[in-house]
Specification:
about 650 residues, 7 strands, Helix Hairpins, five-stranded mixed beta sheet, Heat Shock Protein 90, alpha+beta, rod-shaped, about 5% strand, about 70% helix, two-stranded antiparallel ribbon, disordered C terminus
Length: about 650
């Protein structure tokens, strides 16, 4: 008995998409498991239903097995390995219920699945079962091909267990088919191989006894009675536990072998009790077959009772019908008549033999035509099934492609939605920040203008106060103008409407003119502002002085704004054919997650109204656009709390030609 816990462990360890080997382990363990253990299968999903179907087949409850296997196949969640194995169980149940066409169809459905699973054992099992159904349907050629294909998938010397049993069965099936096809020479090799494989595990196996009887019969057809007799004698020594039917078949075979050996008295002593035993058992087929052998022995002995025995065999064979037995009886009767000198009667028997031969030929031809037609129909159905499967696969591919396309489209729509939200948020932020930044200088202009008016209305206005008010109005107006200029510059650059005015730039004088005026601003913040030009960059470069100046101005201004009591270092260098401008500060730095947003217009790391640094967030965006207009790029490296380094890389000789921003 298979332990309860072992079957439960197999089920618990089964992955969602199990291999064929894992499914087969549970299937093969089920019949020998305890009833309590099998109870777990009812809650084990499709694999449990499959195992129960296998158990029902093993217990010969074929209607139950048929229903369970069909249920396992129809289960939408059934893995491919379970569906393929369930189709095999369904085919076995259909075969034992006598529905050969359904058996063949189930195997045909299961073979592509087993092929995709790359499971040779399951493929061989399905092909072997399909071959048996084909043989019953008269499709012997197709059955032969299926058995050969199944045998070719398995090792010639399989390990003990189900695989070895399957190989032995395939050899026996092939041998039987070769006999039916009239090729006993090919049948012998397969019978001998099947017998050797079976007896390698158990020499007393009932299967081995039957294999020896069948092998002996084929050897008799080949005229090898001595070899046949050895197998019949060995079968007789082991047949007693198997019942009288097997023993009688072995005795009949031995009697036939003794006749071919010329040991007629011994053959007669064997066959007479065999015929009597078959008659007592009421087995008309075996009685007719054994009567033919007995009659042939009596003819060889010249005994008069040969004729009634052969006539009885002929009559029974015609009724059953058994064409080969009937023909053998007629030919033996013709020989008996000739031996007695009854030539007219012998001629009648010879004519009857020719009629039987013609009937057998016509039946063989009709069977061949029917097999060809059935093969044609089977191939047509197979092509139609394959076409439907291909169409279904194509539809599945289209559905998968459409699903993937819709999923991608949904992602794109989500991205577009998020982008639209960000744009809307940016617009709102822009309006809020711009309103706030513009209101500050405007409030200063309006407030100081009102103070100026008040001062002018005094009887004796103070010139110094008036000058201070005018100066504040002027500075507020300049700030307002600068904000508006930056917005217009951004619009201009994004629209591609800036034409480059290239010329030679002496970096030393250029940086001095730009940075020196900013030194007081730096000193007010307690920051050291310094600049330098490397020896490699002392020669003039080619660029647009105005755009280049705006880039440096924006970067230095940005560094000073976010650096208190620190250092801002500006350095110009030449690396190969590139001009590099580095602006490094020891300010607050930028968090890693905010670096990607630095060059987005109207963006600052702190976008709140209470932020400590004013501005629209346009400086770095303008720097990037201006650098790209000059054929370069601005990059940044920053560590929060340590500072930032902005690097501008431009072609030393300027862009390839003066152009507008693309």
């Amino acid at each position: 008995m298979f332990p309860v816990d072992d079957l439960a462990e197999l089920l618990a360890a089964l992955p969602p998409d199990p291999t064929s080997a894992a499914v087969r382990a549970i299937r093969d363990a089920t019949p020998s498991a305890s009833e309590a253990s099998r109870g777990a299968l009812h809650d084990a999903g499709p694999v449990g239903v499959l195992a129960l179907a296998h158990h029902a087949n093993e217990a010969h409850r074929y209607d139950e097995a048929d229903a369970l296997a069909a249920r396992a196949v129809a289960e939408p969640t059934a893995p491919a390995a379970v569906r393929a194995a369930a189709l095999l169980e369904w085919a076995i149940a259909a075969f034992h219920r006598g529905d050969m066409r359904s058996c063949l169809d189930r195997c045909t459905d299961g073979l592509p699945l087993a092929g995709r699973l790359d499971d040779p054992i399951l493929q061989a099992e399905l092909e072997a079962q399909a071959a048996v159904a084909c043989r019953q349907l008269g499709l012997r050629g197709r059955a032969l091909r299926l058995n050969l294909a199944a045998l070719g998938r398995l090792p010639a010397d399989p390990a003990p267990g189900p695989e070895r049993t399957l190989v032995s069965t395939l050899h026996n099936n092939l041998a039987t088919l070769y006999v039916l096809q009239g090729d006993p020479a090919s049948a012998v090799g397969h019978f001998e191989r099947g017998l050797a494989i079976t007896e390698a595990d158990d020499r007393t196996s009932p299967v081995a006894v039957i294999q020896r009887v069948n092998l002996g019969k084929v050897l008799l057809k080949l005229g090898r009675p001595d070899a046949a007799a050895v197998h019949f004698e060995e079968a007789l020594r082991r047949a007693s536990p198997l019942g009288p039917a097997v023993e009688l078949r072995a005795q009949e075979g031995l009697g036939h072998a003794r006749r071919q050996q010329g040991r007629l008295a011994e053959a007669l002593s064997i066959m007479e009790p065999v015929v009597a035993a078959w008659s007592a058992r009421g087995d008309a087929t075996m009685q007719a077959t054994s009567s033919l052998t007995l009659g042939e022995v009596l003819v060889d002995l010249g005994e008069a009772r040969a004729e009634p025995v052969l006539r009885q065999a002929y009559s029974a064979a015609r009724d059953i019908p058994l064409p080969d037995v009937a023909l053998g009886a007629v030919e033996a009767l013709a020989r008996w008549a000739e031996a007695q000198g009854r030539w007219a009667q012998a001629c009648d028997w010879h004519r009857a033999a020719r009629t039987l031969q013609r009937d057998r030929y016509d039946a063989l031809r009709a069977r061949t035509v029917e097999e060809l037609r059935a093969n044609h129909d089977a191939e047509r159905r197979q092509r139609e099934t394959a076409a439907l499967r291909d169409h279904a696969d194509a539809l599945e591919d289209q559905v998968a492609e459409r699903t993937a396309s819709l999923r991608q489209r949904n992602v794109e729509l989500k991205q577009a939605r998020d982008e639209a939200r960000r744009a809307n948020e940016a617009k709102s932020t822009f309006l809020a920040v711009t309103s706030h930044e513009l209101r500050t200088p405007l409030s200063g202009i309006v407030g100081y203008a009102e103070l100026l008016l008040d001062d002018l209305q005094d009887a004796a206005p103070d010139p110094e106060l008036i000058a201070e008010d005018v100066d504040r109005i002027h500075r507020s107006a300049l700030r307002l103008q600068r904000l508006i200029d930056r917005i217009l510059s951004l619009t201009h650059l994004e629209a591609g409407g800036v034409m480059l005015q290239l010329g030679e730039v002496d970096l030393s004088s250029f940086l001095a003119d730009l940075i020196e005026p900013l030194r007081p601003v730096a000193e007010d913040a307690g920051t050291t502002l310094q600049w330098s030009v490397s020896p490699a960059a002392e020669a003039p470069c080619t660029s647009d002085p105005q755009l280049l100046g705006q880039i440096v101005d924006h970067l230095v201004e940005n560094a000073l704004r976010f650096t208190e009591a620190g250092t801002v270092d500006v350095r110009a260098d030449r690396v190969g054919e590139r001009l590099t401008l580095t602006v490094a500060d020891t300010g607050v730095g930028v968090p890693p997650e905010a670096i990607d947003e630095l060059f987005r217009p109207f963006h600052q790391v702190d976008m709140s109204y209470t932020r400590s640094h004013e501005g629209l967030g346009l400086g770095l965006a303008l720097c990037q656009l201006q650098a790209r207009a000059l054929g370069g790029e601005v990059t940044v490296a920053s560590t929060p709390g340590t500072g930032s380094t902005f690097l501008v890389s431009l072609p030393w000789g300027g862009p390839s030609l003066a152009r507008s921003l693309p």
